[in-house]
């Protein structure tokens, strides 16, 4: 029998929802990805994550001038002229490398201030960007600054542009922090003048052409080896009364011995008649003694432009550090949520399955009341015949009435159903008004109190309706969620969705029923008491997830919502990434709408408040927060493979995969599914999971930007006829 409802118009709310999603959500998403990539790049660079370490190889000195090998620790190589300088006798320049460090640099500054000694600090630009206040303190106290590169690489292994970048960025960081620049440079891993070889000499000449004086050392305290305070002092003491540039470190590890040694070394050398200067001051003394009318300015004032450029550089490094720190916190949080969810699934879902499968389990007396099945249909010609036949042929003893509500289809869906000539099937035609409107129309026309709702692309097994309504033997049960299965499992995308349905949907429903916070009775197969539907206000078009909306409304009303694993429905999963995106985008956005709609009941008393607090807590943690933060695992894994310890990163990622595999195996066993398909689970981590991340991010962006998501109709090909449990 076919009914015409031509006077039914689409409700205004539906017309509003069907607006197209504005482009800003895509633009914001793209911007977020670009910013994230930039942050990771800056973080990797600032943390010296892709700079070469020192390669210890022997090279000859055939290209190094003799006056350099036999000369002093200060080398100038400007204009093709090589000059080498030593400090005057009884003159010491204390130099410190690798800082500033928030722990040890202040201690060293304290000792220097105690004895009124000025020193030269060869700073790393990345550390200056992180601790500009320390560099500012150094400059204000009269200490000198020199360049020790931005990330401490072996400069000989870098191309020329990278070396110049290392110098320039350090200069900009100093300009921002202290408002000064410098003409002094010390290469990482450098030592004495007589150690310069053919591999290092081009670095010296290049630095000279850039206007730098290369500063080495005469004595090396070797404080980084931590040989003991006495040994550090002995290493730093120059032979006889010669002048010396002595090397120390104010960063790079525990510098307690350095601090203690300085506290003894400075007064010891003063007692021997030594004076302490900065490198520039010592060089000027040497020039004056040699009668050279030339002076070196230690730290001239930087230009305003360089200060501003340096400020942006500092902000970028500090922002990247903050973001990476946040990622670390999120990594721990994601791990805690994942482990917590896994434990709850293992304990509660397994207990749920054991209880239901116990020989003495029963909902009560068998339910034989007649059932009305509502099938909302919009352009479902590919699958509607198989769906309706599977419903009409159900073995429920009380009888099954099937009502197909054709919601303005343009592909002849209603005519196909009419042509079947099935006695227990009615077709209702109405103008397009949306799925919730179609469902409400079907409920209004249904003759029976037990209502089953099935999507038009879904095929039920013969006993599914009978099994689905058995929980209504419990008078407190208001709705029942069935077991949705993916019918088209041949493609890789479909296999991934099959895994997701078993783990992410069916296993979760066992958990949520146990905790009395079921959030969704699936549109593919769900049963309701008419009384409960009426009490909850019927199907609403306030959200795009009408199934989640009505389920939450029932939970708030105090009805039990349960899961019946034996009531199986076979649905056609999206076959392409584009179709999958549309479907999941709609689901995610609709779920967020439902959460927002019911948020005020968080503070309700009684059943409404208890349900909402549990439901929104779990949806927020596991439905929104965990999917949003889960990309941190993949991002840090990718980051670690390139920029961190590859072995540790790979092991951590494999542990997370093992946890997922165990969870999947448990879920498949509970759902009586074959485990063979799980071979595609590792592949799922590289494509499918990232797609779901982006879907969730775009849904959140759409919600925050106020966009409205339109109904997305997926293209169907139809399930194979005769699909049953044997198809698994």
Describe this structure in words.
The chain is of the alpha/beta class. The chain folds into two domains: 405 residues, Spore Coat Polysaccharide Biosynthesis Protein SpsA, Chain A; 252 residues, Alpha-Beta Barrel (TIM Barrel). It contains 25 helices and 19 strands. A nine-stranded mixed sheet has the order 1-14-13-12-15-18-17-19-16, with helices on both faces. Helix 17 crosses helix 23. The longest helix has 53 residues. The chain is elongated. The two termini are 35 Å apart. The N terminus and C terminus are likely disordered.
Give the gist of this structure:
This protein is an alpha/beta fold and 728 residues long. Helices cover 49% and strands 13% of the residues.
Notable traits:
19 strands; 49% helix; Spore Coat Polysaccharide Biosynthesis Protein SpsA, Chain A; 6-stranded parallel β-sheet; disordered C terminus; alpha/beta; 13% strand; 9-stranded mixed β-sheet
The coarse silhouette is elongated
Give, in spatial order, the strands making up the sheet with the most strands.
Answer: 1-14-13-12-15-18-17-19-16
Overall pLDDT metric: 85
Label the CATH architecture of the largest domain.
Alpha-Beta Complex
For the record, the count of structural domains works out to 2
Helix amount: 40-55%
Uncertain segments: 1-24, 720-728
Structural class: alpha/beta
């Amino acid at each position: 029998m076919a009914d015409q409802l031509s006077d039914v118009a689409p409700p205004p709310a539906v017309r509003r929802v069907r607006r197209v999603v504005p482009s800003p959500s895509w633009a914001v998403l793209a911007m977020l990805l670009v910013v994230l990539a930039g942050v990771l790049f800056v973080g990797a660079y600032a943390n010296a994550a892709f700079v070469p370490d020192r390669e210890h190889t022997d090279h000859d000195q055939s290209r190094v001038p003799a006056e350099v090998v036999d000369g002093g620790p200060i080398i100038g190589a400007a204009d093709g002229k090589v000059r080498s300088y030593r400090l005057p006798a009884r003159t010491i320049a204390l130099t410190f490398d690798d800082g500033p460090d928030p722990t040890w640099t202040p201690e060293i500054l304290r000792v220097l201030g105690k004895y009124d000694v000025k020193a030269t600090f060869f700073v790393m630009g990345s550390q200056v960007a992180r601790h500009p206040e320390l560099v500012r303190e150094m400059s204000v106290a009269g200490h000198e600054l020199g360049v020790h590169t931005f990330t401490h690489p072996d400069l000989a292994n870098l191309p020329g542009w990278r070396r110049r970048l290392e110098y320039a960025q350090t200069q900009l960081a100093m300009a921002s922090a202290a408002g000064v620049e410098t003409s002094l440079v010390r290469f990482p891993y450098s030592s004495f003048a007589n150690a310069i070889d053919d591999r290092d000499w081009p670095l010296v000449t290049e630095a000279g052409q850039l206007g730098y004086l290369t500063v080495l050392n005469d004595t090396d305290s070797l404080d980084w080896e931590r040989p003991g305070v006495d040994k550090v002092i002995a290493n730093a003491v120059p032979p006889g009364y010669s002048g010396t540039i002595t090397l120390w470190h104010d960063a790079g590890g525990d510098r307690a011995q350095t601090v203690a040694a300085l506290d003894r070394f400075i007064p010891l050398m003063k007692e021997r008649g030594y004076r302490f200067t900065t490198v520039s001051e010592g060089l000027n003394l040497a020039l004056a003694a040699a009668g050279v009318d030339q002076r070196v300015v230690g730290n001239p004032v930087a230009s305003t432009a360089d200060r501003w450029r340096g400020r942006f550089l500092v902000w970028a490094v500090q922002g990247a550090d903050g973001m990476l720190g946040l990622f670390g916190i999120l990594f721990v949080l994601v791990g805690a949520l994942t482990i917590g969810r896994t434990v709850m699934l293992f304990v509660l879902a397994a207990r749920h399955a054991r209880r239901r499968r116990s020989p003495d389990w029963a909902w009560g007396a068998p339910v034989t009341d007649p059932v009305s099945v509502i099938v909302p249909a919009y352009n479902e010609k590919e699958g509607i015949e198989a769906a309706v036949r599977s419903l009409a042929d159900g073995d429920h003893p009380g009888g099954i009435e099937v009502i197909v509500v054709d919601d303005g289809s343009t592909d002849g869906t209603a005519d196909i159903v009419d042509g079947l000539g099935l006695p227990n099937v009615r077709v209702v035609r109405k103008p397009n008004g949306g799925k919730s409107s179609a469902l409400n129309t079907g409920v209004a026309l249904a003759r029976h109190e037990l209502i089953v709702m099935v999507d038009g692309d879904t095929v039920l097994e013969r006993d599914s309706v009978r099994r689905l309504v058995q929980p209504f033997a419990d008078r407190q049960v208001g709705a029942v969620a069935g077991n949705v299965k993916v019918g088209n499992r041949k493609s890789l995308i479909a296999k991934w969705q099959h895994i997701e349905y078993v783990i992410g949907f069916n296993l979760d429903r066992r958990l949520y029923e146990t905790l009395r916070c079921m959030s969704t009775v699936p549109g593919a197969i769900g049963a309701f008491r008419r009384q409960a539907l009426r009490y909850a206000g019927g199907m609403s078009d306030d959200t795009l997830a009408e199934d989640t909306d009505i389920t939450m409304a029932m939970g708030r009303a105090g009805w039990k919502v349960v899961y019946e694993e034996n009531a199986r429905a076979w649905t056609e999963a999206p076959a392409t990434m584009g179709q999958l995106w549309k479907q999941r985008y709609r689901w995610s956005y609709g779920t967020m709408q439902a959460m927002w709609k019911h948020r005020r009941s968080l503070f309700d008393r009684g059943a409404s408040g208890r349900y909402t607090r549990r439901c929104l807590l779990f949806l927020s943690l596991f439905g929104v927060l965990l999917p949003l933060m889960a990309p941190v695992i993949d991002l840090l894994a990718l980051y670690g493979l390139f920029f961190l310890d590859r072995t540790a990163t790979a092991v951590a990622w494999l542990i997370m995969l093992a946890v997922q595999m165990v969870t999947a195996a448990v879920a498949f066993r509970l759902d009586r599914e074959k485990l063979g398909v799980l071979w595609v689970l590792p592949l799922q981590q590289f494509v499918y999971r990232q797609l779901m991340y982006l879907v969730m991010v775009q849904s959140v962006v759409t919600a925050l930007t106020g966009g409205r998501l339109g109904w997305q109709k997926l293209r169907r090909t139809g399930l194979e006829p005769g699909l049953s449990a044997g198809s698994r």
